Amino acid sequence: MTAALTPVGDPLTAPFWEAxxxxxxxxQRCGDCGAxxxxxxxxxxxxRSREAxxxxxxxxxxxxxxxxYHRGFAAELKDQIxxxxxMVQLDAGPYLVGRLIEDGRKPVxxxxxxxGFAEIDGVPSVRWRTTRSTDPxxxxxxxxxxxxx
Length: 149
Ligand SMILES: [Zn+2]
Fold this sequence. Notes:
By secondary structure, the chain is mainly beta. About 5% of the residues lie in helices and about 35% in strands.
């Protein structure tokens, strides 16, 4: 992985990347009100507490939105186009963004996914894998919405 695509060393997000190296998904949780939050923040947006822990959460979620890149976001990705980036709502609540592992079928909003981590040149990266497809008959009009309309 080139420098342009390497996550920046940041004490606020370091616990996430350390867990990712071990194949575990952790999310920041407020030490006072218990709210999960992503992305990590120094303070809780719910109660303003600065206390926080990192809790392992269920790595399952649902595709809330996605985009298929036909131009590489960075020059280093040029040879990988087209590739898909998904926004996933975890069953635990927070939304995460990451690459979808291509499996030869078009993603559909509402598809069930699970997180995985790829390590490229020693750097962990979030990768989502489809675990169950949405019934196409039920998602005909859901392609450009969040599926909750
Ligand atoms: Zn809180």
